[in-house]
Amino acid sequence: MPLTLPNLPSLIHETRNAIAIFDETDRLHYANPAFRAALHLAEEDYPTWVELMRRGWQTSTGTHITSCNGDFEKWLSSALSRRGKLPFRGFETSLHDGRWIWVTETVDAHGWMLYIGVEITSLATEGRELRSDRDVALRASQTDELTGIANRRYMMQRLDNMVSNRIQGCVAILDIDHFKSINDAYGHAGGDAVLVDFARKVGHSVRRGDDFGRIGGEEFLFLLPDIEVDNAGQLLDRIRHTLLDACPILQAPEFRYTVSIGITAIQAGDSTQSLLSRADKACYEAKRQGRNRSVCM
Ligand SMILES: Nc1nc2c(ncn2[C@@H]2O[C@H](COP(=O)(O)OP(=O)(O)OP(=O)(O)O)[C@@H](O)[C@H]2O)c(=O)[nH]1
Question: Which ranges of the sequence are coiled-coil (predicted)?
Answer without folding.
Answer: none
